[in-house]
Amino acid sequence: MTSASLIVSIAMANAAQAADMDALVAAAKKEGTLTTIALPHSWCNYGEMIEGFKAKYGIEVNELNPDAGSGDEIEAIKANKGNTGPQAPDVIDVGLSFGPSSKAEGLVQPYKVATWDEIPDSAKDAEGYWYGDYYGVMSIMVNKDLITEMPKDWSDLLKPEFASAVALAGDPRASNQAISGVFAAGLSAAGGDAAKAGEAGLDFFKKLNEAGNFVPVIAKSASFAQGTTPVLMAWDYNALAWRDSLNGNPPAEIILPETGVVAGVYVQAISAYAPHPNAAKLWMEYLYSDEGQLTWLKGYCHPIRFNAMAKAGKIPQDLLDKLPPAEGYAKAVFPTLDEQKAYKEEITTKWDSVVGASVQ
Predict the structure, then answer these.
(1) Which residues constitute the signal peptide according to the record (predicted)?
(2) pLDDT score for 228
């Protein structure tokens, strides 16, 4: 192929892609609404993401249960299979392990975004049923007004000075964030052995509960500020965003533990029963565009296209400067899908019998 014919071929492909996008926008606008679920505005900067999508395309966003966990999102699809009303989610944002399971259960449908090739193969389903959107690491957020000694590792949280202080940012029977917190503590206790980390994590929380240090409340920025949950386990992007929103009242410190540094990838998928399938596809295109990926980065979430965008010089230096030091993430462990499936099942099914603390 000559250079001239190559240019013509590329131009034709670009024109076809633009035409496809125009058709998708028109179809989505005709539907008029997108129904999301489990997207707190402070989580990964979703508030700005939702407003940006609405402003760009003029499509309303119906937001269901912002504080729901990954398991709740899956149940919402199951419960609304025949329902095209406002309680049926079009799209979900769930922990990595929920991607393959939702595909296996026939709960999601395939769709490949325009930037598909820049999503690492290890973070996507080859057929397009689900794909990674962003990742972060499990951290410890501490209210410095109430806690004077900063913990350096998970084991420190068992000390008497953390009485009635430690909480998870979710219910470990349903929330991927909370499950990952239990696994991280267990990975530390098990000396890095992922196969034993689920059991070790449950044992850690049993000890934490028996010591009177565990607070069975779903931790949020409000409970943190009020002093109900002065020490909480959350993804670093949530903790950093909460710290910023508090403006030093109270002062907060975000700590990456010395061991058991667990990285978590979340994935996007479209419900197989989406009442607004075209709006759902357009939402995916927006999330995985340069604009959407940078919106996540503003919320301290590493977008899945981060490496490709950085290589292309598409990430503003001011955003790079706001990220925590890279060396703090060097120890991060990315559990495999098989490991996640194993510890998720162990933690969710044995939490009540082993720990015996109902988190609400």
Answers:
(1) 1-18
(2) 95
Q: For 162, how many CA atoms within 13 A lie in the half-sphere containing its CB?
A: 29
CATH number, span 10-134+264-322: 3.40.190.10
Tokens for 155, please give them. Answer: 């084991």
Q: What is the pTM of this model?
A: 0.80
Handedness of CA 280, 284, 285, 289 (dihedral sign): positive
pLDDT digits over 84-133, tens only?
A: 999 999 999 998 989 999 999 999 999 999 999 999 888 899 999 999 99
In 3D space, the residue among 140, 143, 155, 137 whose CA is nearest the CA of residue 205 turns out to be 155
CB atoms within 10 A of CB 242: 23
pLDDT recorded at residue 6 = 44
CA 156/CA 60 separation, integer angstroms: 46
Q: 135 in helix, strand or coil? A: strand
Residues 339, 331: Cα–Cα separation, whole Å: 18
Q: CB of 276 within 8 A of CB of 28?
A: yes
Indicate the CATH number for domain 136-263+327-354.
Answer: 3.40.190.10
Asked whether residue 153 carries a pLDDT value surpassing 90, the answer given is yes
Res 10 pLDDT > 50 = no
Q: What is the C-alpha to C-alpha distance for residues 210 and 230, in angstroms, rounded to an integer?
A: 18
Reduced to 3 states (helix: H, G, I; strand: E, B; else coil), residue 124 is strand
Using one digit for the tens of pLDDT, what is the confidence trace for 49-66?
999 999 999 999 999 999
**Cα within 13 Å of Cα(114), Cβ side:** 18
Instruction: Determine the Cα angle at 127 with ends 124 and 131, to 5°.
Output: 25
Q: Show the tokens assigned to 312.
A: 């292309």
Inter-residue contact 64 to 257 (CB < 8 Å): no
**Rounded average pLDDT over 267-273:** 97
Domain positions in the chain: 10-134+264-322, 136-263+327-354
